[in-house]
């Protein structure tokens, strides 16, 4: 077997597989950079997405730290646009960059593209997704769109914010057209991935796997894919219309030309609100897997959790106006949207209750994934409840466009999706890499991340209620202490995330091999029917599904004779 | 109903990750229908923008529509309808193992598509002649009928909507060219026709979009 | 063009009989008869002319638009059910297409409803949302910038 030292994937693959004497698996089956770049194996595609997303997360995170550093500076009386460590224009570009990268390149693809790709066929007992070549094309499109978006934002000085609100975006001289084109390309990647997953779930389940025997992660990915397919084209057409507005001056979004800026907001949020459900639903699916496995207990209310995923997907399409309560939209629509925003909280709460009930009388082990699951529960709960505050029109009038909103969405997106993503990577790490990671450092990282996160974002809730606006380069001195706390918190959070990164890198390079094919003793097919690391076509023999996904042997039954 | 796949009976068109041709065909069709659902939502943004414009500026829209030639648009509608018919018949020929018919109908559909583009292009040319350029380039010549200062909105949206539709026709023609190459090679049969059927579904969607575009842009004064 | 169709029709009738023999070997749904395709074609053609006719009726424009949309919907259903063969495909495909249509209609309905309802609560107080111009026929300061003054749409 020739070894060609041509770049990261080969090196890692050799690292990961060379210690195994169990023979060929998907990591070492074919070698060489090109065998990765043009692979149709969903597992390799998932890993490539993982590397790309991690890189973009580092870049976006760097800009977040930059923003926080600027905001921590002592305020200057009579400050000008150049008073602080970065200029006001650069500040705007920095938060645009941070937002666009994090939303489009990191959070939206995070769990579906990495873990959805890797796990979906394995969990349903299929050899691959329905359209493997399309899957590869999705990845290539993602890379092209990502390069486009990053390049145009970095070198085109885009400063509209990731939301591209008109009329500024239609009139500013910065590179809006190129940036929306990049986002348009990324949208295609999202749509095609969603399409692939829907067909896979419908047509390629193992014999015996009825809908109610699927792992809840599959339900979550399915609901996410439905949203991706239905919502993303509306973003695509909105971005096309913005580009046309800039290039041709049509006159539908810019009031100078006869258009309506609120129309743009309607179009934009019709996608972007379901987009946040694209972000969080897979995280919910991950949580169902982590909590059941690490407490050795079947999920409480399987059907309720499964149907609630679909419920969130559907209702989530009709609440977009809650981003526009103060934009001048009709008061009638405002009332309607507020009501439905409260409605969509119900299925979400059902899930949270279900997880907590699953933990009750379970055999909980505080493994790293479980630690992250607890972090998720705490942080997402805060994030979700503060969303309820924002959904009430009267409070939203005061809280809109303040740091309260910033804290809210960071709690749900980062404290929710990102934490679940990290926990999930830890959970499936043995299956993906065949290595062990350091449990001690994993648990330490979860604590540091938890503390850092709260220190960063909780002060933002408080200063938001006291009126600190978001996206502001300068502010009144009364908010100074909160900003200092928040920035220190961001450093602690960064340390925690770097611990995670080093833990993973150390495991790849120096970690011990995992010897068990099912270290968590889970009951789903990706654990029970594969080798330590899956072979290239997943299974030697077609798995048959004979039981539900959470039927642990130690199923805790209610004690009839009274409490323990 | 579906064929049991014995070891030696793999169709040469069966991909490695599917268990049978019927699974492959069904997956291909479902994928295409989902793709069309998203295409539909893509166009919905344009129609929504049209609805907005009609609500805000009803008189200006009426004035703008006076420059639209319903006869040319009607001819285009008929052309697309014929192309839909020939496309359906093409798929039917493929499923009847009739290679000559498949090729003939495919060529007929493509000719219709090209004719559509020619007529549409000439309509645009006539509008440009009057100075009805889109958006900020709108500059009606002195003798032009429409002098409403906001008419650039109507024409901007008209060009974007018909342009987007035309782009999909071009894409459809591209797909059909590829299908033509494959049909000439004799790849399509009653067993293997799902790519052709998917192309036909795409083409019918393009027709459906025009079914709505025509009345809204040309007829609904 | 109609000549081409008629020629094809003649070709098809000879095909049709050979198609019938193949009918029983198809493991998916059977083929629809060519006459049905052509019949649907003729119906759709009539509907195009019907639409043109409707647009010329001397009735209020809101009725014209509604009728046109209604006819267009019927045309769409015919194309979808027969040309796209939804009639004997898995019902799930109809569900997929139908739900896309439903979401699209809800998108329109809510967005356009929002735009229409901007003065829902204030109309009775004498505050109206003026489209384009104010009571004196001028565009708002944030509105379209035109060379000609106050000659905008009424």
TrEMBL record, chain B:
Gene Ontology BP annotations: aerobic electron transport chain
Segments forming a coiled coil: none
Main localization category: membrane
Secretion signal, residue range per the UniProt entry: none
The family this protein is said to belong to: Belongs to the cytochrome c oxidase subunit 3 family.
Keyword Lipid biosynthesis among UniProt keywords: no
Heme-copper oxidase subunit III family profile domain segment(s): 29-221
Any single Pfam family the record assigns to this protein: COX3
Protein name from the UniProt record: Cytochrome c oxidase subunit 3 family protein
Organism name: Fluviispira multicolorata
Transmembrane segments: 30-52, 72-91, 103-119, 157-181, 201-220
Taxonomic lineage from the root: Bacteria, Pseudomonadati, Bdellovibrionota, Oligoflexia, Silvanigrellales
Protein location: Cell membrane; Membrane
GO cellular component: plasma membrane
Highest taxon of source: Bacteria
KW Transmembrane (keyword) present: yes
Listed InterPro entries: Cyt_c/ubiquinol_Oxase_su3, Cyt_c_oxidase-like_su3, Cyt_c_oxidase_su3-like_sf, Cyt_c_oxidase_su3_a-hlx
MF term (GO), any: cytochrome-c oxidase activity
Membrane topology term: Multi-pass membrane protein
Keywords: Membrane, Transmembrane, Transmembrane helix
TrEMBL record, chain C:
The entry's keywords: Membrane, Transmembrane, Transmembrane helix
Biased composition (Basic residues): 1-11
Bilayer-crossing regions: 36-56, 62-83, 92-112
Stretches with biased composition (Basic and acidic residues): 17-26, 145-154
Residue ranges, annotated region (Disordered): 1-26, 134-154
Protein name: Uncharacterized protein
Organism lineage string: Bacteria, Pseudomonadati, Bdellovibrionota, Oligoflexia, Silvanigrellales
